[in-house]
Amino acid sequence: MNMMAYEYDGDMIVVDCGIMFPDAELLGVDIVVPDFTYVRQNRERLRAIILTHAHEDHIGGLPYLLDEVDAPVYGSPFTLALARAKLEEHGLADSTRLVEMQPSQPFNVGAFQVEFIHLTHSTIESGALALTTPLGTVIHSGDFKFDPTPPDQRVSDLHTLADYGRRGVLALFSDSTNIERPGLTPSERAVRGRLSDIISEAPGRVLISCFATSLHRLQIVAELALEHGRRLCFVGRSMFQNSEIAMRLGKLRIPEGLLIPPQDIKKLPRNKVALVLTGSQGEPMAALSRVAVDNHRWVSVEPGDEVVISARVIPGNEKPIFRMIDHFYRRGARVYYQDGSQPPIHVSGHGSAEELKLMLNLVRPKYFIPIHGEYRQLYRHLELAKELAAVSEEGFLIESGDVLEFDEQGARRAGRVPVGRVCIDVGTFDEVEEIILKERRHISADGIVIPILAINEHTGQLEIQPEIVSRGFVPLEEAPDLVESAREVILKTIEKSNLEEVGDWGVIKEKIRTGLRKHFNEQTGKRPMILPVVLEV
Amino acid sequence: MNMMAYEYDGDMIVVDCGIMFPDAELLGVDIVVPDFTYVRQNRERLRAIILTHAHEDHIGGLPYLLDEVDAPVYGSPFTLALARAKLEEHGLADSTRLVEMQPSQPFNVGAFQVEFIHLTHSTIESGALALTTPLGTVIHSGDFKFDPTPPDQRVSDLHTLADYGRRGVLALFSDSTNIERPGLTPSERAVRGRLSDIISEAPGRVLISCFATSLHRLQIVAELALEHGRRLCFVGRSMFQNSEIAMRLGKLRIPEGLLIPPQDIKKLPRNKVALVLTGSQGEPMAALSRVAVDNHRWVSVEPGDEVVISARVIPGNEKPIFRMIDHFYRRGARVYYQDGSQPPIHVSGHGSAEELKLMLNLVRPKYFIPIHGEYRQLYRHLELAKELAAVSEEGFLIESGDVLEFDEQGARRAGRVPVGRVCIDVGTFDEVEEIILKERRHISADGIVIPILAINEHTGQLEIQPEIVSRGFVPLEEAPDLVESAREVILKTIEKSNLEEVGDWGVIKEKIRTGLRKHFNEQTGKRPMILPVVLEV
Q1: Which of A132, A152, A154, A156 is nearest to A143 (CA)?
Q2: Which of A27, A435, A525 shows the shortest C-beta gap to B425?
Q3: Interatomic CA distance for residues A90 and A84, integer angstroms
Q4: CA distance B189 to A300
Q5: Are A409 and A17 spatial neighbours (Cβ–Cβ below 8 Å)?
Q6: 10 Å Cβ neighbour count for B51?
Q7: Which pLDDT tens digits describe chain B residue by residue (537 residues)?
Q8: Distance in angstroms (rounded) separating the CA atoms of residues B301 and B294
Q9: How many other β-carbons are positioned within 10 Å of the β-carbon of residue B12?
């Protein structure tokens, strides 16, 4: 979850505010946002939230942050348009001031002068930030690659980076995502040839799935559809919404009459239509997955159709993606996905090792701090920097929560602030607490057993035999001996307790829990959650 | 889970019997074995279980199968030695007849003549099976690659495959694992150069992790340790056990005095020892993971040590593996893993597309059936075969459970037999039933709520206010309003029910469940499992 606070004197700027999609360990959690405690506690110093680009892992947490603090949000027109759509869903659009920023048009926020420097990435209007204070300039790279031939011909602003480098940069904070890849990341244009071959030779429908923010990809498909006499259709909520926004802003140029609505797909011959769909990660409710199991209102596939997954397989999503691919093969469709074949069906939006070197050599900062990556990637990025002569002073490997302090004397670590993740259930936008997750994890491993005791409030005696119910544990109806022996454990526990203990439900419950835990472990090898309930009747 | 039954007249042979390690969807399940129903129902025809090689996904299910049926087990000496160790753990070693088979020494099992054909793979003594009946010969490839330079110099027996091909083969069943990779898989020898560089330049300890069955890898490390003046130590239970077995069988040649026990590691200078450890997949209890968090009895790392993960990242294991790598980096160790850099730190044991073509061209069967792979891989293997002139009759894409029937007239699909997966809890070796998993999945998403009613058995009236406990749901102690309103739902449900309904606990429980489900969904957006309990006091 990308989020960074820069401070000078009494002014704080937050750069980006992303979300993460949870892994399987986070049972029942829909999204994960950063812990905003530090920003909340220092909200009176917060002057701006600045967004580097429109990806979910950089803007998705914005509504949750703005629920707790108040600050103007800066971003490019496209980024702000997508952010606005999010804020509208949360009812925050009216109460938030959105301020457009343009590359090479510096502006002031508190003590900071901010310049947005255009860099290429897999989405449009992406860039770095130059944050200048009396101490010097900090460059925050955002996500970038140095694409020499972006489809919109807007190459990275190497000149401005070079200018800053020439004048002297205090610190560079640079993206480490692809540090492990040697060489250069291929241009966004590289997928054009492959997509063109597929579309030109396709006997039936062509379904192309990519991220809805991959504007370059959308533009390429639109151009190829036109070239090959196919109508174009965007399918899926975010694909429809983002393409609408991009067209409105003039960032996606689609000739009059090319676009059709999904309900018209069936009216056209199969070889006269190209679709762009959401769902490249096999998300079960997204368009592509629904088409794969023939459960989409407007779209279906038949033998002879082609399905193109023009996105990377995000680690952790292999199973749903390949399950979806298998469904398409079973329906006779031909599926293209990132299998290492060349030319590529997808290219990364992040620069590889040689591009990271170029960034370092252009900016040549005094201090270098790798960001955006796991520990091993930050470590390797720092090692890479040591091979160059670019960093004149020092590199720092800092992790989430670490504070780095700069002054006239230099730079140094300066303690930590609270950070972490907050799990959100999107049904309610509520936080799912860690204790709840722990309970779910415990129950999900070996189930739950609930022994219920009805104790007479006057005599302190059991009114009836203890009742035992369970779920996710061995089926108790099939194990009467186990139920009987568990009852005996409960009765013995009560027998052996003195009156004072029986009177204290907390004690008796704990003793029953301990006794049953041991008993079930011996009898079944399992460690279910045990939740004794005492009813005073 | 690799397992295949071949039948002719009244004789059945089962080839391999593997296990799978479960994904996160299988809560609390330790391993998955095949459903043996068909073999069990036809056990009187079962003549032999034949193992193609010693990998877990080919032999791991053997003890579970032999728990249900009785048959001799055929395998190479090394494969049988590993199988025997498994059977001993399950108390089945004495009751099972293990029969050694050697390459190029055909033997008869019922109506079948069986020949084991040596092929190269990532473990030793791996091979294909030629199963000959009066109808012709079927070749079952097992897992293979055509490694021209295996470390033990035992190349694949191309000549025997060619002989069968010349005489005519009825059907080829061939491994599809690496169909998506173009070209040739590098030789096992390819990792030697990289490992040699690492070991020769290492200032401290070298820790190398690979699968304990990767005998070629073990042999290479032993040779390099000797070359570079380091003592060798195997760490981890299966690494120790497999190396012992292999040395005893003369399959792992380690010079006298090279090997040390783990407790002696600390006595040697750090640059005088090379370790081979289990745990390449980040398994939390395996040696490497324990070293990573400094929780291993005999081994620790320091800055200057080198950690080599000489294995592929099995999809689904990315998170634990990379978490482990991060831990090593934090301790200052240098970590080498499969990051695409050349020369490789690991090579696959499965042949790539050109090797699969060579297999097809050598065997040139009448019928071709791709095996070992997901649907898309089988599909692509079949497509590959269509590009060649190797298959004279037909290819079949069959999935688990499909029956393929051969006779003088040809080959055809012939229905299905029951197949599936059986989930095992290794604590007890018990099967985890699907209903239990469903319950765990339900609870793990939104938690569980247990409303408890104490009803007077004489009056049919509630004795006390309904009690409500929950786990994994919203913390009820912090939501008194929710508890109160839920109580009201319960009371209203009982009020509105007639006497007959209240008398029938099944009905009243279902009505309460329905009422509370609706109530909680409206109030919290969550759908916990609701488990009403009625106590008659």
Answers
A1: A156
A2: A525
A3: 10
A4: 48
A5: no
A6: 29
A7: 899 999 999 999 999 999 988 776 677 777 889 999 999 999 999 999 999 999 999 999 999 999 999 999 999 999 999 999 999 999 999 999 999 999 999 999 999 999 999 999 999 999 999 999 999 999 999 999 999 999 999 999 999 999 999 999 999 999 999 999 999 999 999 999 999 999 999 999 999 999 999 999 999 999 999 999 999 999 999 999 999 999 999 999 999 999 999 999 999 999 999 999 999 999 888 999 999 999 999 999 999 999 999 999 888 788 889 999 999 999 999 999 998 888 999 999 999 999 999 999 999 999 999 999 999 999 999 999 999 999 999 999 999 999 999 999 999 999 999 998 888 776 666 677 777 888 888 888 888 899 988 888 777 788 888 889 888 888 888 888 888 999 999 989 888 877 777 677 778 888 889 999 999 888 888 888 898 888 887
A8: 8
A9: 23
Which of residues 318 through 377 in chain A touch B, CB cutoff 8 A?
A: 318-319, 322, 325-326, 329-330, 335, 339-341, 374-376
Distances in Å between the Cα of A323 and the Cα atoms of A338, A345, B32, B530 are 15, 19, 19, 32
A23, B24: Cβ pair inside 8 Å?
yes
Residues of B in contact with A434 (CB under 8 A): none
Asked if A383 and A390 touch (Cβ cutoff 8 Å), the reply is no
Q: Are A453 and A534 contacting, i.e. CB atoms less than 8 angstroms apart? A: yes
In A352-363, which positions are buried (b, 16+ CB within 10 angstroms) versus exposed (e)? Answer: bbebbbbbbebb
Q: A439 contacts in B (CB within 8 Å)?
A: 447, 471-472
Contacts of A240 (CB under 8 A, 6+ apart): A234
* Rounded Cα gap, residues A360 and B185, in angstroms: 37
Q: Which of A314, A266, A283 is nearest to A275 (CA)?
A: A266
- CA atoms within 13 Å, Cβ hemisphere of A398: 24
- For tokens 């090279």, the residue is B258
Q: Is A183 buried (19+), middle (13-18) or exposed (0-12) by CB count in 10 A?
A: exposed
Instruction: Say which of A35, A157, A175, A305 is annotated catalytic.
Output: A175
- Find the CB nearest B319 among A23, A430, A529: A23
Task: Give the tokens for residue A151.
Answer: 């489809």
The residues near B390 (Cβ < 8 Å, ≥ 6 apart) are B357, B360, B361, B363, B364, B365, B368
Q: Rounded distance, CA B428 to CA A527, Å?
A: 12
Q: Are A372 and A177 in contact (CB under 8 A)?
A: yes
Partners of A452 in beta bridges = A467, A533
